[in-house]
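Note on ligand handling. Small-molecule inputs were canonicalized before submission; formal charges were left as drawn, and no protonation-state enumeration was performed. Where a ligand contained multiple stereocentres, the stereochemistry in the source SMILES was retained. For zinc ion, this procedure yielded the string shown in the input block below.
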Amino acid sequence: MSILALFVSLVLLLSASTYVGELTDAASARARAQTAADSAALAAAAESAPYGSSSPFSAAVHYAQLNGGVLRDCICFSGATAVQVEVEVDGASAWARAVIDPTKLLPAAPGGLDPRLQGAVDALLVAGGGRIWLESGYRTPERQRELWADALGRYGDAELADDWVARPGTSMHERGLAVDLGGDAEYAWRLVVELGLPLTRPMSWEPWHFELEAAAAG
Ligand SMILES: [Zn+2]
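Structure output:
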């Protein structure tokens, strides 16, 4: 597992549903489920990060098992900066969410796009023949602050704003590792697959947002 600066916040602790036994045993199962969930979430986040192996799901499965648990759910996309898992141990289940703090990662390309991302996007735009263009690439922290403030004004709620714009200091755009494309996003994705470009779309709700594949960034 990569050494990364991560932090875990516990989202929800569900009580045992099917476990029948001493109260202390149930409490112990819950505690072990939480430990297994924390471990799985951290492992998945590390593998999802730019320097990971790009397989957060299998990391979560593996680390849940190492802690005597079974992975029940994993909201984990390669390249995403947050993962959420549910792990079950002896009938007790627990959730954990691990968030990568991008400010702890060294910027891959200070002041611009990562050259590997730039190369892949250039190839994509050429192949796109005008049907795809670069809408937003590298952003300064000031620009990210403006975008987030705009979103807050538009949605009137910080949590809703977070769904659409990363908080300043947490965007892959600020690290030069993400681009937003304009034009036909589905055509762009077909070309990525056809040409074998090292790009991913980590967020299904933002089909225009492309990042460098974790394996390519590592
Ligand atoms: Zn984006």
